[in-house]
Amino acid sequence: MIWWIGLLLVAVVVTLLVVRRRRRRVRPPVLVPERAPMPEILVEEVEAPPSLAEEPSFAQRLSSSRSLFDRVRSLGARSELSEDQLAVVEEVLLRSDVGVETTNAILARLAESGAPDGVVDALRRELRASLDRPREVRREADEGRIPVWLFVGVNGVGKTTSIGKLAYQETQAGRRVLLAAGDTFRAAAADQLTQWAERTGADVVRAEEGADPGSVVHDALGRAQAREVDLVLADTAGRRVNSSNLIDELAKIRRVADRGPGQVVETFMVLDATTGQNALSQAREFLAAAQVSGIILTKLDGTARGGIVVAIERELAIPVKFVGVGERAMDLVVFDPDVFVDSLLGTSG
Amino acid sequence: MFDSLSARLEKVGSSLRSKGRLSDADLDEALGEVRTALLEADVELSVVRAFIAAVRERVAGENVLSSLTPGQHVIKAVHEQLIEVLGGAALKVTYAPQPPTVVLLAGLQGAGKTTTAAKLAQWFKSQGRQPLLVAADLQRPAAVEQLRVLGAQIGVDVFSEPLDPVTVARTGVARAAQLGRDVVIIDTAGRLSIDEALMEEVRSISRETNPHYTFLVIDAVTGQDAVHTAKAFHDSLSLSGIIVTKLDYDARGGAVLSARGVVGRPVVFASSGEKISDFDLFHPDRMAGRILGMGDVLSLIEQAERTLDPATTMDAAQRMMSGAFTLDDFLNQLNQVKKMGSLGGIMKLLPGVNKEMRQAAANVDDSQITRVEAIIHSMTPAERANPVIIDGSRRTRIAKGSGSSVNAVNQLLKQFDQMKKMMRQMGQGSMPQLPGGLNKMAQRMAAAQASRGEALPEGFDALARGMQSAPRGATGGPKGKKKKGGRVTPPKGR
Ligand SMILES: Nc1nc2c(ncn2[C@@H]2O[C@H](COP(=O)(O)OP(=O)(O)OP(=O)(O)O)[C@@H](O)[C@H]2O)c(=O)[nH]1
Ligand SMILES: [Mg+2]
């Protein structure tokens, strides 16, 4: 039962030894930046020589990466793929944040199956197969219960904005929507959600900063019941996934939302399309803590391609359900895998 | 999958150790591993290529030290190159002779600009400055309100008006001058680099306010897009530096290298938490270690330094190594460790610890620890000091007292005994066979420590020596590469 404690203690011993030595050598430990004399110099170091070997050609490299997608298109039909072709495919995938592991898996399959109708088609087929899962959005709860959509994600990915956008869509579709300001942590988070409620005509329940998010959700369900609301959208504070306290708190919020009159019918993990490989760890942790049922991929209106969702869908089977394409209320669309794959490959339009 | 680079490189070409020079095939293989590691750390592909080329050059000319395996040789070169790229040409911030010194923050939506603005203000305050915050993010609902709340928390005034962002910024700077504030920090709305209208807006904010310093705020979890963004903002605003946020996430943070590489301007500050105080100057060595998967050790060490009581822990450590460790010590130790955070969290910071072990630790919750504590608490002081006296009937009593099974008590005692043995062995300088990748971990800690140019402590040294592939050459640490002092460049002309 406790073999991990032994491990931990060994780790602590090692740490202590290191710390002890450091204390001896670096003394006194500088914890706060020292107050510098005036005029002050924050960082003082000599200039080092330019460090990246091929820095000057960077702009070229970037523009060449753009024409890369054209190169993909021009690759011809072959039953066997050449090294060159595979290299181009690899580059496209890596540059879209698909990740090394998934990229290698796709390359292996391509090398095996060949490309009788051309590389683009083969690649598209392969990507499309990775994204082949049901994506219905659940709006109905069991008889007599209120459906709740819960929004989770790390800081700044677009949870609150996505709630605003969905509140707009749902109210437009004639449903009564209530927003629960479950982010009681970040300064002015409830104000932000309240402004979205005003914009969209949804109802909102909020509490003071620092209040228990669970009780906000609880109150929201009470109000929803009294007012015969059709759908509750619950915001949560942005949180990193490598803190068990924060993740536990989220699990608790979900339990509260899924109790009594409430029933969580969707838990959306909101994911910023600019995110790299850390998105996998986000998805894994949020899935475990809050049973994520779908992803909202935001900021696809930017230059990022959001390829990491291919890895997430393959590995964790969490479907992307919506896509954020701007900051206005209408800038949210249902995820379409074909369109997405085309945009990954640069073959759209 | 998250196995760190050093582990991968251990495998490369170890048979060719004696040749004295890396063969091309060796080098290709090693650099292939470096490439994968960098890509997994989210370094952008072009930056990876340029970086690899630079490392190749660095390695090719040199003779391989006989004390290093080819893998270690490469990792040393990689580490040095990382430090050079991340740390080179550091920024010198000076204050304008004619105050206020204007600081402009820009970046994508959700990067953390508003929080960073407040943190930066607090930092300037701690430097004896009197900053004014200007809220020019009129785009996102309640962004101004957010900055006002943060400003109130740190006692810094926040200026804003419901006008257009350019006017707000310009008026804000004028207001600071009137009020006699010597630093103005302008928070702007998040914007996409391809949003021409908004990029033009931030350009005119820049024109109107003539900032001495323009920082790009970039999120440490950013992927390949980092170069597009950094380049576009640099082209538009001519950045003076980069501020990286969310370093408290478990991301490797390769985006920092990408942005640094493409912009060619230094990373100046690092933000590592939601609290205002989680903000500091950027440390290139820490970031280098992190990208290589060794940096977590450093943050573990720091966390330990912050939270552990040095006197009692040192004492306990000594007793552990001498074999005089008691269950009371164990309890104390457990309490100390709990202060550092969750076990799963700490375990995540340990490099080289394998997946099963990590998962097991992640699954440990407080109730399990409480159960172990309850068992120990149900023992008499004599039993805790000398567990050997705990016989069958005592076991039954303890189990009853703590509401657990005799089996659980047995297990705890057995494992405690094993642990003690293991530690004594370590204290005597031999390396016990540790479970779950712990040997690797110890080795990795050694490498991290050495990468900081610090010698290893005695006990640890023994630990490293006891291992087959311990980074022997690393124990001496790389030669001091710290370049200090030098020129002070004046602030950018206005
Ligand atoms: N361009 C673009 N910006 C978006 C999109 N979705 C959200 N944003 C912006 O991203 C920023 C952060 O969005 P929020 O909704 O505040 O994010 P959050 O996850 O609620 O943030 P915290 O509550 O602070 O963790 C805001 O400036 C939004 O306007 C999108 O699809 N495209
Ligand atoms: Mg929010």
- Beginning-to-end CA distance, first to last residue of chain A: 59 Å
Question: Would you list the SSEs of chain B in sequence order as H and E?
Answer: HHHHEHEHEHEHEHEHEEHHHHHHHHHHHH
> What share of residues are in beta strands of chain B?
5-15%
CATH topology annotation of the domain at 146-292 in chain A: Rossmann fold
Based on CA atoms alone, the radius of gyration of chain A comes out at 25 Å
What's the overall geometry of chain B? globular
Strand order of the largest sheet of chain B: 3-2-4-1-5-6-7-8
| Average of the residue pLDDT scores of chain A | 82
- Helix segment count of chain B? 22
Low-confidence stretches of chain B: 13-18, 451-494
Helix content, binned percent of chain A: 40-55%
Which segments of chain A are poorly predicted (pLDDT under 50) over 5 or more consecutive residues? 16-67
Global structural class of chain A: alpha/beta
Overall tally of domains of chain B = 3
CATH architecture designation of the largest domain in chain B: 3-Layer(aba) Sandwich
Quote the CATH topology of the largest domain in chain B: Rossmann fold
CATH class descriptor name of the largest domain in chain B: Alpha Beta
CA-CA gap between termini of chain B: 50 Å
The top-level CATH class of the domain at 146-292 in chain A is Alpha Beta
Give, in order, the helices and strands of chain A.
HHHHHEHEHEHEHEHEHEEH
Structure described in brief:
With 349 residues, chain A is α/β, with parallel strands linked by helices. Helix content of chain A is 47%, strand content 12%. In chain A, α4 crosses α5.
What would you say this structure looks like, in words?
Among the domains of chain A are: 58-130, SRP54, nucleotide-binding domain (Four Helix Bundle (Hemerythrin (Met), subunit A), Up-down Bundle), CATH 1.20.120.140; 146-292, Rossmann fold (3-Layer(aba) Sandwich). In chain A, 47% of the residues lie in helices and 12% in strands. Chain A is built from twelve helices and eight strands. Chain A has helices at residues 3-25, 58-74, 83-95, 100-113, 119-130, 159-172, 189-200, 213-226, 244-257, 278-290, 308-316, 337-345; strands spanning 146-152, 177-180, 203-205, 231-234, 262-272, 294-298, 320-324, 332-334. Chain A has an eight-stranded mixed beta sheet, sandwiched between helices. In chain A, helix 11 links the parallel strand 6 and strand 7 (320-324). In chain A, helix 6 (159-172) runs parallel beside helix 7 and helix 8 (213-226) runs parallel beside helix 9 (244-257). Residues 16-67 of chain A have low confidence and may be disordered. With 494 residues, chain B is of the alpha/beta class. Chain B has an eight-stranded mixed beta sheet with strand order 3-2-4-1-5-6-7-8, sandwiched between helices. At the A-B interface, helix 1, helix 2, helix 3, helix 7 and helix 10 of A face helix 2, helix 3, helix 4, helix 6 and helix 9 of B. Bound molecules: guanosine-5'-triphosphate and magnesium ion (MG). Guanosine-5'-triphosphate sits between chains A (153, 155-161, 183, 186, 189, 238, 270, 298-299, 301-302, 324-327, 331) and B (109-110, 140, 190, 192).
